[in-house]
Amino acid sequence: MGSSAENSTAGMSSFSRLAPLEAVLFDIDGTLCDSDPLHVLAFQELLPQIGFNGGVPITEEFFIQHFAGKHNDDIASFLFPDDHARGVKFMEDKEAVFRRIAKDHLKPINGLDKLVKWIETRGLRRAAVTNAPRPNADMMVSVLGLSEFFEFVIVGDECEHAKPFPDPYLKAIEQLKVSKDHTFICEDSVSGITAGVAAGMAVVGLTTRNPEDLLKTAKPTLLVKDYADPKLWAALEEIDRKTGAAAGIP
């Protein structure tokens, strides 16, 4: 595998091919906001009540390995392989605990406001695309002050297949009426990056909580720490430069 600098240069080169950019799509959990620790707290509150792991609360590492980015149906099957209905009910209870915690503790990813302004200034289309249940998705977008920013919030439950299948991202570009060749995705999990790559789009992977080496296995176009990362802005400036050149702007 090439060096980090080589991979970064290749990623920025791939991004320049998106010009003129039409749209940006965002996952929500871990991508718009650092919500994973709040999900961990919800699981730590409820899992001991069912005797999971001998009553010992799970760690964040366990959460990353088994739960992060996955659809609730898959987590329900993991926790209750012989009683899916009970698993579904457990996950509904867990999401209610998460919403209770998140209302007062949800914070945006560093630099998000700067990227939001960049997108708005250029009049780009935008949608949120998530495996979170609809009540969670709408709550998080609202708490972050982005209800007016997003044209659509696409939920995995409302597609034929959730992430890691490409369906939610393909539905987003269909509803926005944009080309996948001129759209990029922001994601923070292997499941989400896999979905974006399968949909044929460029993906910015955020190392919010998931390890960089793990995210690389899903083949994101570019990996960044957050939205203030100079690598991201170098790629966006290249898009601006190519768009301006094509339009004859010096």
Q: Report the average pLDDT across residues.
A: 92
Query: What ranges have pLDDT less than 50 throughout 5 or more consecutive residues?
Result: none
Bin the strand percentage: 5-15%
Question: Helicity range of the residues?
Answer: 40-55%
Number of helices: 11
Question: Class of the largest domain, according to the CATH hierarchy?
Answer: Alpha Beta
Largest sheet, described in full? 6 strands, parallel
Number of strands: 6
CATH architecture title of the largest domain: 3-Layer(aba) Sandwich
Radius of gyration, in angstroms, nearest whole number: 18 Å
Strand order of the largest sheet: 3-2-1-4-5-6
In the CATH hierarchy, the third-tier topology of the largest domain is known as Rossmann fold
CATH superfamily of the largest domain: HAD superfamily/HAD-like
The figure for the number of domains is 2
N- and C-termini, Cα separation: 37 Å
User: Could you give the order of the helices and strands?
Assistant: HEHHHHHEHEHEHEHEH
- Give the overall form: elongated
Give the class from helix and strand content and strand pairing.
alpha/beta
Cofactor: Mg(2+)
Protein name: Haloacid dehalogenase-like hydrolase domain-containing protein Sgpp
GO molecular function: catalytic activity; metal ion binding
Keywords: Magnesium, Metal-binding
